Amino acid sequence: MSSSVSLGPLAFAADRLLAVGLLIAFLFLVDRILVAENGRAAPATGMAVLVGLVAARVAYVVLHWEAYAVDPWTVLAFWQGGFTAWAGLLATAAILAWRMRPVRAMRRALGVLAVLAAIWFAASAMLQPEARPLPDLPVLVGMDGTEITPENLAGQPFAINLWATWCPPCRRELPMLAEEAANSDIPILLANQGEDRQAVADYLLASGISPRSVVLDKQMGLMDVAGNGVLPTTIFVDAEGEIVATHVGEISRAALSDKLQQLQGD
Question: What distance in Å separates the CA atoms of residue 9 and residue 183, rounded to the nearest whole number?
C-alpha cells in the first residue's frame, strides 16, 4: 500500500493523514455523546486529546533520547512525526476516566477510543508497504564528478534522500542528514534532483554542508524509483536490493536511526 496520499498538488504521509482523520472522528463522536447525555460538550474532551498528544510525543522522545540529545530543540519539531501511540492512548483514556461525567458518557467515550485505537493499529499495519525490488537506478554523479553506478551499491544496504535547494523541508533536514551520512556504516546518498552542479555547490558552501555524500540526479530518475514525486523522500534499500521503507517528507534523526537499524537487522 502507498505510504503517501496525493490531494491535488499536495502529498501527505498516509499514516499522518490517518491519524488526523481519527483524531477528528474522536472529537466529533465524543462531542455527540456529551451532547446526548448532558445537552452540551465538555472541556474534558479537548484536555484528553491535548494530554494524549503530549504523552505520545514525550514517550517517543524518551525512547529515542540518544538521537534527540544531539539537537534538543528538535523535540519541538513535531511536524517531523514521532509519537508513541500506546502512550497517547493510555493518557487520553486516563483523562476521560478522571474528568468525564456522567459515568455512562465516560464509558461510551472510552468505547469510542478503543474502537478508533483498533482501527489505527490495524490500518497502520496495512499501510506498511511490502518490500519491493529496487528498480534500475540512474547513474548518479558525485560533486567531485565521480560516477556512482548501481554496481557500486550492490550487495549492501543503503539509503537515498531526494532533495532540492528550493525545498524548505529539504533544507531543514539536510545538515542533519549530511552529518549522519559522514558517520554512518550504511551509505546514505543525498541525491539532489535536477539542479545544476554549480548551484548545488554554492548552496552547500553557503550552508556549511559537506558535499561528501551529495550526488546529482540530473534527470531526476530517482523520482520514478520513489514513486510519489514528493520532496523530500528518503528510500531505504536492504542488502538484497529491495526497498523496505520509504519516508515521505522531512525525516528526524530518530526516525532515520530507526530505519538504519532496521536495515542492519535485515
Answer: 36
